[in-house]
């Protein structure tokens, strides 16, 4: 389920889209003990030059957008994760061992142009 | 979707999709670690994923290894207040060469007990298993004793530090012959309590659950975090 944008005009701009994958839907609940699902948020949207400074952008995104204005061959700044958080997964392997593993930078918290 | 599923399993370090018949009991400490980390992530608190503060050790992967051993039955069980003998065996082969062992804790759960159904006090003896010298016999024998602990009932899970031993096993897998567990009852076998003791031992055999909690640190995965902290 994607999060609603503020207005139709802003809908196409770079922002975070919320997406929750329930492990039960995949049958993975039979071996993953926790969590029950994964927040597979993703970044999507345009990064127009006029808004690169306001869309949580890096300084380089602004520079890139500026260069693109001069030379169209320079690629446009893209919508990417700017803040990520880790997750911990508790699951059972094929040998009945219980594994707790931490994965860094797994969940998209914020997006921006870069 | 099958292709992506395989990739995900590889990412987790699994060859194929696990299909456990039932979930192993998960110690409360593991549940607490998961809940704490989820709460910190939700609150946006910076986390050091290479330090397990609940256990006070460095590490980024925790494994609760299932016991692959078996019960031993001998004539000794009918004398000297012996209750049960069991070989405990933990397969450490899943630990890769890159990982450093930082903790190995044996957990012995002697099963539920209550003040309404008090059993006799127990004595738990833990020895290194050694190969039998008699040819043709496959049963292991107790070697060097590692721990001898009196256990008043009721009692929760018992824990034993096996870090040195696990490191030795991990470096030399052929040395891993397991552990020899013996449980004795400490009450005298009076005529009136004989049946009760046998009942206690039978109950212990049914409810005994052993597991080895192993924490490892992969320096390659934790290098970035330590640099970030500096």
Helix/strand layout:
The complex is a heterodimer of chains A (114) and B (230).
Chain A: E1 15-17, E2 20-22, H1 23-26, E3 32-34, E4 37-39, E5 42-44, H2 59-70, E6 79-92, E7 98-113
Antiparallel strand pairs in A: 1-5, 2-4, 3-6, 6-7
Chain B: H1 2-11, H2 28-42, E1 51-52, E2 57-58, E3 61-66, E4 70-72, E5 82-88, E6 100-109, E7 122-130, E8 141-151, E9 158-161, H3 163-171, E10 179-185, H4 194-207, E11 209-217, H5 219-229
Antiparallel strand pairs in B: 1-2, 3-11, 4-5, 5-10, 6-9, 6-11, 7-8, 7-10
Question: What would the keywords be for this entry?
Answer:
heterodimer; A: 114 residues; mainly beta; 3-stranded antiparallel β-sheet; 14% helix; 39% strand; B: alpha+beta; 11 strands; 30% strand; disordered C terminus
Concise synopsis of the structure shown:
Chain A is mostly beta strands and 114 residues long. Chain A is built from two helices and seven strands. In chain B, 25% of the residues are buried.
Description:
- The complex is a heterodimer of chains A (114) and B (230).
- Chain A is mostly beta strands and 114 residues long.
- Chain A has helices at 23-26, 59-70, and strands at 15-17, 20-22, 32-34, 37-39, 42-44, 79-92, 98-113.
- In chain A, the strands form three sheets. Chain A has a three-stranded antiparallel beta sheet with strand order 3-6-7, with no helix packed on it. In chain A, strands 1-5 form a two-stranded antiparallel ribbon.
- The longest helix of chain B has 15 residues, at 28-42.
- Chain B has five helices and eleven strands.
- Chain B is α+β, with helices and mostly antiparallel strands and 230 residues long.
- Chain B is globular.
- The A-B interface holds A 26, 30-31, 33-35, 85-102, 104, 107, 109 and B 5, 12-20, 23-24, 26, 30-31, 33-34, 37-38, 41, 44, 47, 49, 60-66, 91, 94, 221, 224-225.
